[in-house]
Amino acid sequence: MLSRFGGLIIHIRFLWAAFFAAVLSVPPAVAGTLSWVTQERWVTVKSITDGDTFKTTNGEKIRLLGINTPETRKDTKQAQPFGNKAKQALKKIIAGKQVRLSFDKEKKDRYGRTLAHIYTRNGLWVNAELVRLGLAHVYTFAPNTKLANRLTAIEQQAIRSNLGMWSHKRWQVVEADKLAINLLGQFRLVQGKVTKLDKRGWGFNLGKLTVTIPKKYRQSFGKRLRLKVGDVVLVRGKVRLSKRNKWFLSIYNRSDVYHIK
User: Fold this and answer.
1) What is the arithmetic mean of pLDDT over 202-223?
2) Peptide bond into 28 cis (omega under 30)
3) Neighbours of 56 (CB within 10 A)
4) What's the pLDDT at 8?
5) Which of 41, 113, 188, 254 is catalytic?
6) Share above pLDDT 70 across residues of the chain, in percent, rounded to a whole number
7) Whole-Å CA distances, 153 to 137, 147, 156, 215, 233
8) Has residue 218 got a pLDDT over 90?
9) CB distance 67 to 139 below 8 Å
């Protein structure tokens, strides 16, 4: 009985060893089924949807993680400035090629698309490359914030250099004291001087703009914001009006706010 049991254990160990040897020998072209082992996998690009989305030869929809590009034309909606250029740039970099998907904590968005950082064969980080070219802005939400700080640093350089979308008035940084009704509902980068701090540390004012951190996202910040009156900061998010007709903007993680000086 014991000898049979021991033989069974040896057989199982042999099967596991054979399995992992097979895993290590799988070429990138077919490694897409092994994401549960490596947390990364290779896919082949079939078509480009827009500047931050593409489809694989297996029909999987991939959304580039941590960034957002200007929209291309959809139905009756016109393309946003630099939307087509972002799509063409992504097409030039990855169309018809094998790319590596690298994941953060959540792998799917609410539309069922796979969320990933994309790398080419030569190691180019595609998400960051689009930001570097000024064809994408940082767009991160907890818990997928692993590379947010690196993307933000690249974005700051693109803004300072007035590259791509940052050269167009639709995307240029807005001063907090110059908010206007035509900006309502737009995702914008807004710069201003801190004029008031929330006593609990979960919000502040840039003049007439109130910046808030929604309760469900405060845990992702770790600690309360360390700001002081007079700091000049840049925040990112949708510009909105409250029921009392007061300007406000919500931020969702630390990469949504950073010091200018």
Assistant:
1) 90
2) no
3) 19
4) 46
5) 113
6) 85
7) 11, 10, 5, 26, 14
8) no
9) yes
Q: If DSSP codes are grouped into helix, strand and coil, which group holds residue 215?
A: helix
**Domain spans of the chain, in order of start:** 28-165, 173-259
pLDDT for 77: 83
Most confident residue range from 25-34, 108-117, 198-207, 218-227: 108-117
Q: Is 131 helix (H, G, I), strand (E, B) or coil?
A: helix
Say which of 63, 132, 236, 254 is annotated catalytic: 63
Q: Is 113 a catalytic residue?
A: yes
Task: Decide: 45 and 97 in contact? Cβ < 8 Å.
Answer: yes
Stretch 177-185: mean pLDDT, rounded? 95
- Determine the pLDDT at residue 25: 40
* Close Cβ partners of 96 (under 8 Å, ≥ 6 residues apart): 44, 45, 46
CATH number of 28-165: 2.40.50.90
How far is 218 from 131, CA to CA, in rounded Å?
A: 26
Class of the domain covering 173-259: mainly beta
Which residues fall within 8 angstroms of residue 228, CB to CB, at 6 or more apart? 194, 197
Same CATH topology for 28-165 and 173-259? yes
Q: Which of the residue ranges 60-64, 84-88, 142-146 would you say has the lowest mean pLDDT?
A: 142-146
Q: Is 60 an active-site residue?
A: no
Amino acid (1-letter code) at residue 152: T
Set 71, 132, 155, 188: catalytic member? 71
